[in-house]
Structure formats: structure tokens, C-alpha cells
Specification:
The structure is a single chain. By secondary structure, the protein is of the alpha/beta class. It contains 13 helices and 16 strands. The protein folds into three domains: 6-75 and 128-243, Alpha-Beta Complex (inorganic pyrophosphatase (n-terminal core)); 77-126, no CATH class; 251-369, Diaminopimelate Epimerase, Chain A, domain 1 (Roll). The protein has helices at residues 6-14, 29-43, 145-149, 151-155, 184-191, 197-210, 221-233, 237-246, 250-261, 277-280, 287-296, 327-330, 351-369; strands spanning 18-23, 49-53, 71-72, 77-85, 91-100, 103-111, 120-126, 131-135, 159-163, 174-177, 264-265, 270-276, 303-311, 314-321, 337-338, 342-347. A six-stranded parallel sheet has the order 3-2-1-8-9-10, covered by helices on one side.
Length: 371
């Protein structure tokens, strides 16, 4: 894959000292793997600091990925404390300091007047990043709380926007938006000029997860060639497959059995399943993994829907689409979060009512698409 913006990306990163890498709110393996790959790649470029900030519902599912121990969920304050003196009326002639035991004294000698306590203010300095790299976020609001709490940072820092969705609003100074890409990992690989086994493992994880182990229609011979190149570099394919698809303890197998036993067809194109809170209570179950496995178990279906009844009047809904369906648009009345192929939202209804409401909308929208 050729990325037209590759030179711009390399130039912007090459002129930066501090980089922030982040992704859409509640990212998946493609976003997390790509973010870690970029972190390790930029670490080889001798940047002063490279931070990865991600908002994860279940961090434990990613902890085996190389470099994940460096991921944080909030921006840390810099090791600086700023003392400001207003010199509009009185100029400063001399500045000195003295350390007396545990006390630091800072002396400012005025010129032609006097300073008062009202002239002095204090502030803690945040890290000033030279560049921000976002992954899988079609707009800044998709970054969730990180953007909401740090708007000034995002509005005043150059952004490299890497995505593969048609909804992307091109908010970055550089926008590498590739609609035909199988994954963010594929775009990231095409932008990099150095590779290690750790970087390759993160990228192959994103590639395998995004393509459901190379089963999505977007997979091409070029995709398989990319996977082969990553394995040659040292990507741990067997570990990735084990972590994503094969590792199940007894509790997980029981829950998976319930999901399969409840698998039903809404139409020839739509399948769905569900579980309730009591089905997984007290068990270490990752809902995102359950959804991924349900999709893998339904290769003939165009749309896969999973319902989780968190409470009697609250149901979480996960929807995955193949082929030409844009579920984010089809289900826009539910304010979904995600991409055109995969969304998540909550319905303030019990499971039975939520299933009826969501499936009715999907069935009606499919009829319109197929006319």
C-alpha cells in the first residue's frame, strides 16, 4: 500500500521532540496494536518523549502486547512548577535564588517600584507535545474524555490523523485516511521505515484482529504479503492466534456455549445472540472478545448483533457488518459509537425490547439498501 502522505508524516515526526499517540474511545486490538507499534517505532527515532494514552474498558486483554506497560489513560503533568511575576508596572532588575535546607528562596529585585503578592501567580505546566498521532478516530470527539479534557492541546498541536473510515472529517494537519485499507496496522506499516520483532508483533495483531484472521472481504494478496513480511521480521503469529482465539478457561467456555446456544437468525442476512448479567457475573469475561468470536462463528452472515443485558432496563448492543452495509448510519437513531462496520451503543430497555427495537430497524434499513 502506498500512502501519499508518508513524506509529510515522516517530516512532521522528524522535526518533533515530544509525541502523543492516542486512539478512539474504547479502542480494539487494531488501534492498540498500531499505537504501540508507533510508540516503539518513534522510540528508535530518539524523540525526547513518546506517550501513549488510551481509554480502555478492559486493559487486561492487551497486557501481553509488547510495550503495553507504558500505556496510560491520562496526561501526566510535567516536572515543572511555574512562578509568574507581572512586570507590566514594575520591571525586574535582577533574579536570584538560594537553597536553604528544605526551602528554596527566589529573589526578584524590582526596578523603579515594588512588587506585591498580587503580582505573583503559580501554575503547574503540562507536557507540551510537538505532534499528536490519532488512530481510528473519525473526528476529535471520538477520542472521548481525552479530547474533552484537553481541547486546547488538540487545537494548538499539529495532528497526524490515521484512519480508514469514510466518515473521517480530515481534522489533522496531515490526514492519512485510506478507505481501502484492511486495518490501521496496514496503513501504519506503510508509513514506517524501520521494523523490529516487537513492532511487527503489534502490527500483525492489529491486522489479524481487524480482518478476523484474514476472513473479511477487504483482504487481498497484498494483505497476505504484508502478514508474511511481518512474520519474517519476527512477529509472533502463534502467540497472537493463541491470545486472540484459542485461550479459554472453563468459565469462558461455559459462557461461549450459552452465546452459541442462543444464536438466532433475524433474517437470512442478520444473526444475533445475547447474554444477561447473571450469565457472566463473577467470571472474568471480556465482552469485546465474545463479540469477535461470535463474528468468527458467523461467516455467512452480513450483520452480526450481540445483546448484553447489563440491568433490567439497560442493554448494551454490539453490531458488526460485512460487505456494503454502514451500520453506523443505519442505526444512527441509537447514537452509536464506532465505525461504519462496527458500532456499540446502549439501549435503556430490557433485553427483549432492545432486541426487537434494534432488529426491526436493521431489517427495515436492509430492505431499503437492497431495493
Amino acid at each position: 500500500m502506498v500512502i501519499p502522505e508518508k513524506t509529510e508524516i515522516q517530516n512532521l515526526l522528524g522535526s518533533s521532540r515530544r509525541a502523543l499517540i492516542t486512539a478512539r474511545d474504547n479502542p480494539g486490538f487494531d488501534e492498540v496494536g498500531s499505537a504501540l507499534a508507533w510508540m516503539l517505532f518513534l522510540g528508535k527515532k530518539n524523540l525526547e518523549r513518546v506517550d501513549v494514552l488510551l481509554s480502555l474498558q478492559n486493559p487486561n486483554r492487551y497486557k501481553w502486547l509488547p510495550g503495553f506497560n507504558r500505556v496510560r489513560d491520562t496526561i501526566q503533568a510535567a516536572d515543572e512548577f511555574v512562578i509568574r511575576v507581572n512586570v507590566a508596572k514594575t520591571k525586574a532588575r535582577q533574579l536570584s535564588y538560594d537553597l536553604d535546607g528544605d526551602t528554596l528562596e527566589i529573589r526578584v529585585v524590582p526596578e523603579g517600584g515594588n512588587f506585591t503578592p498580587a503580582d505573583v501567580s503559580f501554575a503547574a505546566s503540562s507536557f507540551s507535545y510537538d505532534v499528536i498521532l490519532t488512530l481510528g478516530a473519525p473526528e476529535l470527539n471520538a477520542l472521548g474524555g481525552l479530547f474533552e479534557k484537553n481541547r486546547d492541546l488538540f487545537f494548538n498541536t499539529p495532528i497526524i490523523n490515521i484512519d480508514r473510515t469514510s466518515r473521517n472529517v480530515r481534522y489533522g494537519q496531515v490526514n492519512a485516511v485510506q478507505l481501502t485499507a484492511t486495518s490501521l496496522a496496514e496503513i501504519s506499516y506503510a508509513c514506517m521505515d524501520a521494523m523490529t520483532p516487537e513492532i511487527a508483533t503489534n502490527l500483525l495483531t492489529g491486522l489479524i484482529a481487524s480482518t478476523n484472521s484474514f476472513q473479511t472481504p477487504q483482504v487481498t494478496p497484498e494483505t497476505l504479503q504484508l502478514a508474511s513480511e511481518l512474520i519474517v521480521v519476527g512477529a509472533k503469529r502463534e502467540e497472537i492466534i493463541d491470545r486472540l482465539y484459542r485461550t479459554k478457561d472453563m468459565d469462558k467456555m461455559k459462557v461461549w456455549g450459552r452465546v452459541l446456544s442462543r444464536l438466532s437468525k433475524a433474517t437470512d442476512r442478520i444473526v444475533y445472540s445475547d447474554i444477561a448479567r447473571e450469565d457472566i457475573e463473577g467470571k472474568n469475561i471480556d465482552l469485546d472478545t465474545l463479540v469477535d468470536e461470535l463474528v468468527m462463528a458467523s461467516p455467512e452472515s452480513d450483520i452480526v448483533v450481540f445483546f448484553y443485558e447489563r440491568a433490567l432496563d439497560e442493554t448494551e448492543v454490539y453490531v458488526y457488518a460485512r460487505e456494503n452495509y454502514d451500520v453506523q448510519t443505519m442505526l444512527q437513531q441509537f447514537s452509536p459509537i464506532g465505525t461504519r462496520k462496527q458500532v456499540q451503543f446502549t439501549v435503556s430497555r430490557g433485553r427483549a425490547v432492545a432486541e426487537s427495537d434494534v432488529l426491526d430497524v436493521l431489517k427495515s434499513k436492509i430492505k431499503l439498501v437492497n431495493r
